[in-house]
Amino acid sequence: NSVVLVTGGSGLVGKAIKYVVENGSGCKNEKWVFASSKDGDLTDRASTEAMFLKYKPTHVIHLAAKVGGLFGNLSANLEFLRKNLEINDNVLFMAHKTGVQHVVSCLSTCIFPDKTSYPINETMVHNGPPHDSNYGYSYAKRMIDILNRGYNREHGRNYTSIIPTNVFGPDDNFNVQEGHVLPGLIHKIYKAKEEGYDLKSNTSKPFTVWGTGKPRRQFIYSRDLARLIIWVLREYKETEPIILSVGEEDEVSIKEAAEQVAIAMEFKNGFIFDTEKSDGQYKKTADNAKLRKYLPDFKFTPFPIALKETCDWFVENYETARK
Ligand code: NDP
């Protein structure tokens, strides 16, 4: 029998794992524990130890992190660096100390070198400095891979990491200032519909997309990512990270993403670009060949369907959603 501790279990990805475990992906001999910061502050060593002693996990999916969008990162790089370094060192050390054999931690495609060739793959994580806008988060995340290699080489532990592209789905942080691009757009359209409604013309004001709309991103639906993470936990034996992403052909521009959100939200008034706002990294196209080698037949939810489910969830849960 195994006990799977999910740190960050109350976040976007953690809630998606809970959803898929409760809807067919769970196993009889697995007990799942979804921990939030209320169960213990993972920046604190003693609190982390108490969590491990309480739940006695045999497996850990480590998602807990200080996470933010471009604008959240820009304003607090040092804090992103320090908090994430503390959390990751505490979790991996306590996992090792209490005998956990298998840990899956979470990196991100936004931690790759800024100046790189495309598509990026798992071998390129440490090949050069990350984009300056999120250097704190990036260096802290890169250290997870270094820790994993250390625990493997010196203690034979099976600690690995996954590299998701931009995640979205129900239970995301829909805060416009600090959140990621898709939930931010969804919330802005919701507000534009609510506040800017003009009775005479029966229309709403357009909403504003930050930046030029030209940057390109691969988006992954949180529930698809959740199914893949469970596969990694059960089947993937390498220490080296694995990119969990839709293919290169499914990359979309922020403009195209905004158009899709408008369709999903049934908003017809279009949008304007605030080009004074930073674009962040132009692109970070990731290669999912390694994933496809292992799972050639995995089916991702089509972007418009996943977006519609996310928008519907946000509208239905507006009062309680993180925003
Ligand atoms: P969220 O911001 O939605 O959730 C963060 C989680 O971490 C919450 O459960 C939060 O608990 C917990 N947490 C934060 N600080 C602490 C702390 N000091 N002690 C204990 N728990 C803490 O994150 P996501 O679900 O979006 O991200 C999950 C993982 O995926 C992260 O590692 C992130 O870096 C990575 N990732 C995310 C991407 C994305 O687009 N969202 C893209 C690529 C990677 P509480 O709810 O109590 O605050």
UniProtKB/TrEMBL annotation:
Pathway as given in its UniProt record: Nucleotide-sugar biosynthesis; GDP-L-fucose biosynthesis via de novo pathway; GDP-L-fucose from GDP-alpha-D-mannose: step 2/2
Organism: Ciona savignyi
SUPFAM superfamilies assigned: NAD(P)-binding Rossmann-fold domains (SSF51735)
Keyword Kinase: no
The family this protein is said to belong to: Belongs to the NAD(P)-dependent epimerase/dehydratase family. Fucose synthase subfamily.
Full protein name: GDP-L-fucose synthase
Keyword terms, alphabetized: Isomerase, NADP, Oxidoreductase
GO biological process annotation, one example: 'de novo' GDP-L-fucose biosynthetic process
Record's keyword annotation contains Nuclease: no
UniProt xrefs under Pfam families: Epimerase
EC number per UniProt: 1.1.1.271
Job of this protein: Catalyzes the two-step NADP-dependent conversion of GDP-4-dehydro-6-deoxy-D-mannose to GDP-fucose, involving an epimerase and a reductase reaction.
PANTHER family tied to this protein: GDP-L-FUCOSE SYNTHASE
Family matches, as InterPro entries: Epimerase_deHydtase, GDP_fucose/colitose_synth, NAD(P)-bd_dom_sf
Domain of life where this protein originates: Eukaryota
MF term (GO), any: GDP-L-fucose synthase activity
